[in-house]
Design goal:
single chain, 251 residues, 31% strand, 5-stranded antiparallel sheet, alpha/beta
């Protein structure tokens, strides 16, 4: 299962740090990809990517949490509202929030709420995986021709973590740690692989989205792959990368 990405919006910096600390202690599988105290600045960031989980304070400067959700250009699957006021609970569930936490946040309620969100996220991702599995598993048998031109091998696309351009050659990084060099340019390889699964993030790199463990955001974007290697996302390909993530895991 791919990493779970979350974003935190709260006008109290102390509250953000508390949620980050609790996630680190109890849910290390969740990666915090962004935080903000200003909802309008957060809206700008959230136009670039869609987190799996959003922690959202109801009382925010300039707009409340409900207005913030309405202003988003896309839906976020799971939302946990945070507030010091109990009276907003019914309205929170009217907008299909997965949870509602009152300040000060109690550890047991936090764990219960986030556990429920994780279950929903995993079920949704499994459903999306099943929808695309026919492409992912059977659409392509990539024939790899080694650089010496004497040996050919069929490689299951599931085992390809990413591919790296090396001029007229391409180096394939496999799940078992092996690398294979083939006498074919990366652009040709890209044409032979399912575009729903493989994304060009840089003129030098083509990645398997199912092997993305985490990614950074901001002016400089970097992805961490399942083999531990970190790769840069070029500024030209940044929007394309976030679009690919959205289509694969949030459709």
């Amino acid at each position: 299962m791919s990493a779970i990405h979350c974003y935190i919006i709260d006008d109290e910096f102390r509250s953000i740090r508390l949620i980050e600390s609790m996630l680190k202690d109890y849910f290390p599988e969740i990666s915090v990809i962004g935080t903000h105290t200003d909802p309008r600045s957060a809206l700008v960031q959230l136009k670039q990517f869609i987190p799996d989980l959003l922690f959202l304070d109801i009382h925010l400067p300039e707009m409340d949490g409900f207005s913030f959700l309405e202003a988003l250009p896309h839906d976020i699957s799971e939302v946990i509202f945070i507030t010091a006021y109990q009276e907003y609970a019914l309205r929170a569930f009217d907008v299909h929030a997965i949870g509602y936490l009152t300040k000060p946040i109690q550890t047991d309620k936090f764990i219960s709420c986030v556990s429920r969100a994780i279950e929903h996220i995993q079920l949704r991702k499994q459903h999306n995986l099943q929808k695309s599995s026919s492409l992912f598993l059977t659409d392509v048998n990539l024939k790899l021709t080694l650089h010496d031109g004497k040996v050919s091998a069929l490689v299951d696309v599931n085992r390809i973590v990413f591919a790296e351009s090396q001029g007229n050659y391409t180096r394939i990084y496999l799940l078992d740690g092996r690398q294979q060099v083939i006498c074919k340019q990366l652009g040709k390889i890209q044409q032979e692989l399912p575009s729903s699964v493989f994304c060009r993030i840089h003129h030098q790199y083509l990645i398997n989205l199912y092997h993305v463990i985490s990614y950074t955001t901001g002016l400089s974007v970097e992805v961490k792959m399942s083999n531990g290697i970190r790769l840069p996302v070029s500024r030209r390909q940044k929007k394309h990368f976030f679009d690919c993530i959205q289509m694969l895991f949030h459709s």
